[in-house]
Amino acid sequence: MYVPPANAVSESDLRAMVRAARTAQLVTVGPDGVPLATLLPVLWREDVVVAHMALANEHWRSIPETDGAPALVVCTLPDAYVSPSWYAAKAEHGRVVPTWNYSAVHLTGTARVVRDVDWLRDAVTGLTDHHEAGRVEPWAVADAPVAFTEGQLRGIVGVEVRVERAEGKAKLSQNRSEADRAGVVGGLRDEAPAVAAAVAAGRALP
After folding, report:
1. Contacts of 115 (CB under 8 A, 6+ apart)
2. Exposure check for the chain: N or C terminus, fewer CB within 10 A?
3. What would the DSSP string read from start to end of the chain?
């Protein structure tokens, strides 16, 4: 990942970004050399990313259960087009161009498939607790009948990625003047309030 110094992210912010993204693209390469990608809910625990996918998904069959395979976990947060017309600098000298603001995390490591039922139960419980946190009446895995849950676990496989390198980037107009950044925030909030407001709020990241 290309990360200019102004867009660098600390490890604590990397973890916060993954928690906020909640999903990631798991990218591996099959035996035929063709890249494979699947969007999955993820948890980043210590140096391991925990996820699972459907048994019917052919992607997991290309990942060895023992030796593992090189993998890239890509987490993306809200992104938005930035118009140069929002910059105060446009009126000052006109030397401005369009850009794109975004934040992303790349976790590189080794993926392995996990079929152990206890591991799967712990994984889905952790993922559920994470996504249900903050709800007035959070749902828990234990709320479902045991036999039903065990049947559902037989329909998935776990994926564990041991993280060897973590990189992140928050490209949020840090290289612009305060006036230009204020213009970007205002422009985003006016033109794309749903997704762009999240990008505008993210400018507090380092």
Report:
1. 65, 157, 158
2. C
3. ----GGGB--HHHHHHHHHHH-EEEEEEE-TTS-EEEEEEE-EEETTEEEEEEETT-GGGGGS-SSS-EEEEEEEE---EEE-GGG-HHHHHT-----EEEEEEEEEEEEEEEE--HHHHHHHHHHHHHHHHTT-SS---GGGS-HHHHHHHHTTEEEEEEEEEEEEEEEESSTTS-HHHHHHHHHHHHHH-HHHHHHHHHGGG--
d(Cα 87, Cα 93) in Å, to the nearest integer?
10
Fill in the amino acid letter for 121: R
Please state, in angstroms and as integers, the Cα–Cα distance from residue 83 to each residue in 46, 89, 174, 200, following that order.
39, 12, 15, 13
Nearest in space to 127 (alpha carbons), one of 85, 158, 104, 148: 158
pTM of the model: 0.88
CA distances in angstroms from 161 to 3, 54, 124, listed in the order given: 23, 17, 16
* Mean pLDDT confidence for 91-111: 91
- CA gap 156, 149 in Å, rounded: 11
For residue range 121-171, list pLDDT tens digits in order. 999 999 999 999 989 999 999 999 999 999 999 999 999 999 999 999 999
**CA 199 to each of CA 94, 97, 185: distance values in angstroms, whole numbers, following the listed order:** 24, 19, 8
